[in-house]
């Protein structure tokens, strides 16, 4: 499928409500929700919000992926 036809297909799906359009991220609300969920094992980066910044293994699982 060419990139032009892929763009057309995505636009058709978006127009039909099958794809959600990106919306602005409220980083403060996201950070609050992450903290409310309690301790995280995996340190994920969610739009700049780290889920486990003080993880005992450091930047896990990124430290493992970097070795691979």
Summarize the topology.
Elements: H1 3-15, H2 27-36, E1 45-46, E2 49-50, H3 62-67
Antiparallel strand pairs: 1-2
Describe this entry's structure for a reader.
The two termini are 32 Å apart. The protein has one domain (3-67). It has helices at residues 3-15, 27-36, 62-67, and strands at 45-46, 49-50. The longest helix is centred in the first third of the chain and has 13 residues, at 3-15. The model has no long low-confidence stretch (mean pLDDT 79). It has 68 residues and is mainly alpha-helical. The protein is built from 3 helices and 2 strands; from the N terminus they run ααββα. A two-stranded antiparallel sheet has the order 1-2.
Number of helices: 3
What class, by secondary structure content? mainly alpha
Mean pLDDT reading: 79
Low-confidence parts: none
List keywords for this structure.
two-stranded antiparallel sheet; flat; 3 helices; 68 residues; mainly alpha; 2 strands
Question: Can you summarize this structure?
Answer:
By secondary structure, this protein is mainly α. The chain has helices at residues 3-15, 27-36, 62-67; strands at 45-46, 49-50. It is flat.
């Amino acid at each position: 499928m060419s990139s032009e036809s892929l763009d057309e297909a995505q636009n058709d799906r978006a127009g039909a409500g099958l794809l959600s359009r990106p919306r602005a991220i409220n980083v403060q609300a996201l950070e609050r929700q992450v903290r409310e969920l309690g301790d995280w094992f995996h340190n994920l980066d969610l739009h700049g919000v780290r889920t486990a910044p003080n993880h005992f293994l450091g930047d896990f699982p990124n430290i493992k992926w970097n070795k691979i």
